[in-house]
Design brief:
By secondary structure, this protein is an alpha/beta fold. The protein has helices spanning 14-17, 35-44, 50-70, 79-99, 114-142, 155-184, 195-205, 224-231, 244-247, 252-257, 268-271, 296-312, 314-331, 383-387, 395-400, 414-423, 440-444, 451-463, 467-482; strands at residues 188-192, 213-218, 235-238, 261-265, 279-281, 284-288, 337-343, 349-355, 405-407, 436-438. The protein is flat, with a radius of gyration of 26 Å.
Length: 486
Amino acid sequence: MEAGLGTAPSGAPTGAAAGGPDGAGVTTAPVAGSPDRLLGRLNRHGFRLLQPADAVALYAVAVATMLLRFGRSWPDYAVAAYLVSFGVTVTVLVLALYFGGLYEREPRLGTPPVLPRAARLLAVAGGTVALMNLAATGLARELGVATARALPMPVVNLLVLIVLGSVVVTVNRHVAQRARTRREGPPRAVLLGTPADLALADAHVAHVRGGARIVARVGDRAGLEAAVAAHDATDVLVLSRELLDDVYPEPIGALARRGVTVLQRVGAVESMYGLSRIREVGGLPFVLLRHQWLPGSRRRFKRLLDLTLVVLFVPVWLPLLGLVAAYQLVVAGRPVLFRQTRVGAGGRPFALVKFRTMRVGAEEDGRARLAEVDDDRILPACRWVRTRRLDELPQLFNVLRGEMSLVGPRPERPELTVGFEAELPAYAKRHEIPPGITGLAQVNGRYHTDASYKLGYDLQYLANWSPVLDLEILLRTVVVLLRREG
């Protein structure tokens, strides 16, 4: 299991975010108005030079396949129709690579193999193209447009594009990594561990493919940051499990925010936790300690999924919202809506909106407190609305504004958050993404579930996020509500 971000942090200096063909950083600040400065700005918004490089290469493969199969006499359709079809197909493929994380900046050491990841993503994208083709062709026929195929892309050509595309995507990254090494030099690693672990790692790291320099060896937290700064290290290898508690979340978090990769060596005990995505460095197994759980591409994909689902289900939730609002107006009176300051993404406050289910002035003493199962502040006629979570429906407008997500850690009040962060050091990690209307903690826990247990669910959600997981939690939420589980 990995924890966080494999890219240059969004708050990094412009010079650290700009640079070569993989979007990797350079250590000098660019001159104002220079190409590096422009690339730095584009980089922070998710653009990498590898994206057009991949697009050109994939398009070339598509055209070359047609030429090899049919020469210059392409069958059935005009050449222009084929070229447009190739453009649409390549766009879908590059989007799959982007949302799959292949344009995130990878660490210098322990980079996972690209070919298997590229092949999986392009296979999914190829299936998407085929489904799009079927849907578009069927729609065209319904509209009276006579066409055998809306997107002229022979199946054989699509399969070749997926296979050869995986290869060219891998080659592009190999070229980019070589260019990065020429520009920045080999990785510079600081080893952190006990004397025995340091001696063991010396013999292994010296044989890292592509070369790596061990610039410092430290045995405790006190010398770690100084060694990294003194030697401009690119990587930290934490070799001893007993030292991890001394350096995580800080100063490892501070190092990761500066773009320094931190990896933890995995031993037999850690393997029992069912860790995934193990990385190899000089024959030793490591796991990447990430400062952020979701890279930028996956956060954008999550936002796109939210908007798609909210818009798609407008005919369902909008009438339901109106019915609940009318009921609340009759049984609870005005105000129907209740606004309250909550902590959102990045720790920023926002105004959460929900239907009022408690009596007016429920917190006249000004003291924030968590809701309880038999809370006497809840209006009896509104208790079922709260049990069914229908009071949360107005938060769909928070989702549309980008303040919330459909699925994520539930937002807490600032007064309560301060206490949780003091008690639970990792609590602030749940603010990495917008809070959710529902979440893993909500479908597994209850109102009275302790905050530390809910935090475990929230961090597990962040570490394992996927679109499928969001859809699963949404479906489980519906089941929980139908069963009237509180």
